[in-house]
Amino acid sequence: MPDGIKTFDIPVTLSQTGGNVQLTVTSGKKELLRKTIQAGTIVPRTLYFIHHSHTDVGYSHLQAEVEKIHTKNIYDALKMIDETRNLPEEARFKWNVEALWDVENFMQKATPEDKKAFVKAVKEGGIGLSAMYGNILTGLSQPEELFHYTEYAQKLEKEYGLKINSAMMSDVPGFAWSLVPALTTSGVKYFSSGPNYLGKTNPYLGDRVGNFVKNWGDKPVWWQSPSGKEKILFWTAGRGYSSWHGIHPGAVFETGQKKIAEYLDDLTRTNYPYDIVQWRYNIVSDNGPIDPSISKFVDEWNKKYTSPKIVLSTNENMFEVFEKKYGDQLPVVKGDISPHWEDGAMSTAKEEGINRNSGLKLQQLTTLYSMLNPRLYNTQRFYDAWRNVILFHEHTWGAFNSITAPDLPFVTDQWKVKRQFSLDGNSLTNQLEKDLLQPLTNPGSKKIEVFNTSSWIRSGVITIPAAAEGNSVQDAAGNKIPLQKLENGTMVFMAKNIPALGSAVYTIIKNKTLATSPFVVNNNSVSNGKIALTWDNKTGSITHFTDNGTTNYAGSYNNQGLNSYWYVQGSDPNEAESNTEVHTKILENGAIMVKVLLTAEAPGANKLERIITLYKDSDEALLVDKKPVRTKESVHFGFPFNSGFKNITADAGYGIMKYLTDQLPGSNMDYWYSRRWVDASSGQKGIQWMMIETPLTEAAEMIDERMLIDNSHKKWKDKGTPGTTNWFSYAMNNYWHTNYKADQEGPVHYRYALRPHDTFNSVENEKYSAAFTQPLIAIPVNYKADIKGSLFHMKNDKIVVTSITPQDDQSFIIRLYNPDEKEQTTTFTWERLKPSKLIYNKTGKEISINDSISLNSMDVTEIKAIQ
Questions:
Q1: Which of 357, 429, 438, 841 is the most buried (most CB within 10 A)?
Q2: Which residues touch 107 (CB under 8 Å, ≥6 apart)?
Q3: Which of 272, 200, 276, 212 has the alpha carbon at shortest distance from 243?
Q4: Could you tell me if 741 and 347 are in contact, meaning their C-beta atoms sit under 8 angstroms apart?
Q5: Which residues contact 209 (CB under 8 A, 6 or more apart)?
Q6: Is the C-alpha dihedral spanning 783, 789, 792, 793 positive or negative?
Q7: Contact between residue 648 and residue 336 where contact means Cβ atoms under 8 Å apart
Q8: The pLDDT value given to residue 18
Q9: Which range is least confidently modeled, 607-621, 625-639, 664-678, 763-777?
């Protein structure tokens, strides 16, 4: 800033006296703002308006109405783009489509001419597209699901020659770390976050956002993936997406000057270091309209004033300009920004469990189709199934008055649509499985084929339908294996060493095979000779969990052990209640498995059943028959571990997260998410806790929902609890005041597994969690259905195959993941799949089928195998 006074004929005037700078904002003769700031402070001079409408698939309108609103917005935007074509570039109308769900709906009904106009507008920069299908709760998704967020973007790129390298999300505070590799795999380089924003009078600036907005608003960074190999430019809009809500079309002329002055004042006060500002321009409300007047406002502003300049821009263009100017100056961060809204999904725990299982099965079926009949793989049908899974995880669960008026038809109708996404995803997934396996199935066959969709040799328990008759099974080498008949008529046996990406055939025979049961069952304990469990006869919680050593892997919380039940009636976890005395019943006890049922009356539930199933590992299943309760409540299952197991690691999806160490500022410290497992360990011992239906965990204590700030806002933790070994599965709640369900009833099933181990090994954790969540598949087969050999083997089985997807050109996309904490190199050993060449899917680089492939720790790479 030069000495003296410098005055412009603009609303922002800067003057310097001594060491200070005075900023004055005027409108005509009226002074709006006078602020003294330190000399040398940068005053931002270019405001990038990112004009868009926030897509709430179901919230303020019924879903069908939301679709109509956003389709109309696209048509209105095309009209305005044409009408403002002769204005200066900065003032020409730009429209950002926040969610590609909007584009898909538009494309399904648009005429060829309309589609052509739309694609032209995108290519010319009039319309910006986000690669994201919707505004999704990333902490809920299974690992593979994140890679399908951008599937429709890839369709558009392929069909219309578009380039979609930026993404935007609105309303949602916080994002799962594995979103970074998922986005970069599809070519996304930029990611704009526009969180929920309620203004500076709100203690957290937004609704249930924790410390996310305060920590990330107006602080662009390079966000690295777990492997450190990829990064995206991550930029959270300081004013969120909603700071212009309440402003109707045309009202910007009356309100714009004051809002701009206030924002510039805030940026100056906080020493904002860049002269480019991201500002989401989203008027009226969620699912709002376009503003046809915005181009005129920007044109008149820029002609009248030198500074600040306003630019109507697409998200992509803003990022490109910003990166060119500041990209090499930005800090680099690496870690999880643990999200805050995922707990709402636990208001519909049953449907969330169904949805999570659908995602796991779709991932497994993709590989199974590649193994059995890749030409039968239907890309569109798999896309439809994934679309439903993703839409159930879209951030809006129901109506804005879902809590205050839960029985209104407007509310119940929205929930019906939302619920249907989970049910349809499940139905489509099951049909895909049926279409593949039914032609191979012969219910009367004595041959049982067991399929292993993993890239390493696996063993596991196989269930044979009740229609089968026999006393043993025989493998291909002639070895006889015992069968155990269960109470429901089905039979189980232990299949061993099933080839990677292959199968093995067993034959049911009449001969009996002598087998000694390894199990010892007493009134409150069970053992298989390797693992022993003891539970409290009053509470049913596991107080002792041991292997062949002396270590007790179980800890204690409120005098209870692992698998304890806690119900909070209200918001205060200190008032948590547990179940009454349990009744024990042995359901199964044979050579293969033992199953013990613990039944009890429990607060908040009609009945609590906990089933302990023991094979060679401990596999726990939980069932809760839930009562509908509309007063505030929550359900938690306690898993306190050995007090020495202070090293806590969680499954990040494709990566691992160390509790607190890998959580960036602004992360949710009240509860955490995990994809499939949490691990607690010391140097030499530890335990892996696996889960399927619910991903949310709490550290040290159950969430405290008592309203402590301004008597109206939940107080969020700003730090975690280092060294805690008390963990909880956050299974149910109805704590939200809007959007989510007011009550739920059961029965609801949860499955957990506990695996003791020696030193923590991330590769073992990945493989055991895959086996737990995607078990071996077995069917009685036609004699001609025997599949010989594996597709291929990994020479280094520390690198795993997460999916193999058939392509329309008869090639395969093989997704590789290195879960090890060190770089690993491998080659393929080809068997039934014999490609002619390999291509790195992201870069297009071609390599030989025998070339080595190296992956950083926690790296994800896609290889295209061309036959």
A1: 429
A2: 115, 118
A3: 200
A4: yes
A5: 173, 174, 195, 196, 340
A6: positive
A7: no
A8: 41
A9: 607-621
- Give the pLDDT confidence score for residue 39 in this predicted structure: 44
* Tokens of residue 585, six digits: 């019943």
Q: How far is CA 393 from the centre of its chain?
A: 8
Task: Please give the helix or strand (H or E) that residue 655 lies within, else none.
Answer: strand 655-658
ω into 603 cis (within 30 of 0): no
Q: Which amino acid is at 116?
A: K
Region 352-370: what's the mean pLDDT? 98
| pLDDT greater than 80 at residue 524 | yes
Positive or negative, the CA dihedral 381, 387, 392, 393 is positive
Rounded to whole angstroms, the maximal C-alpha distance in the chain is 103
Span 364-370, average pLDDT: 98
C-beta of residue 208 within 8 angstroms of C-beta of residue 344 = no
Residue-wise burial string across 560-578, b where 16 or more C-beta atoms lie within 10 A, e elsewhere: bbbbbbbbbeebebeebeb
- Using the structure block, give the residue that is written with the tokens 């907005």: 213
pLDDT, average across residues 450-466: 94
Peptide bond into 308 cis (omega under 30): yes
Residues 165-178 pLDDT 10s: 999 999 999 999 99
Which residues have a Cβ under 8 Å from the Cβ of 124 and sit 6 or more positions away? none
Residue-wise DSSP of 220-250: -EEEE-TTSS-EEEEEE-TTTTTTTBTPPTT
Task: Phi first, then psi: give them for residue 257, nearest 5 degrees.
Answer: -60, -45
Instruction: State percent of the chain over pLDDT 90.
Output: 85
The Cβ of residue 38 has, within 10 Å, a number of other Cβ atoms equal to 10
Residue 67 is predicted with a pLDDT of: 94
Written in H, E and C, the secondary structure of 663-695 is: ECCCCCCCCEECCCEEEEECCCCEEEEEECCCC
610 CB-side CA count, 13 A: 28
Are 346 and 624 a contacting pair, CB within 8 Å? no
Inform me whether the pLDDT recorded for 684 exceeds 80. Answer: yes
Where does the pLDDT of residue 709 fall: very low under 50, low under 70, confident under 90, or very high at 90 and above? confident
Q: Beta 127-129 vs 95-97: how paired, if at all?
A: parallel
Please report, for the chain, how many H helices and E strands are present, in that order.
14, 51
- The pLDDT > 70 percentage for the chain reads 93
CB atoms within 10 A of CB 660: 18
CB 62 within 8 A of CB 413: yes
In the structure encoding, which two tokens stand for residue 271, read together?
């020493």
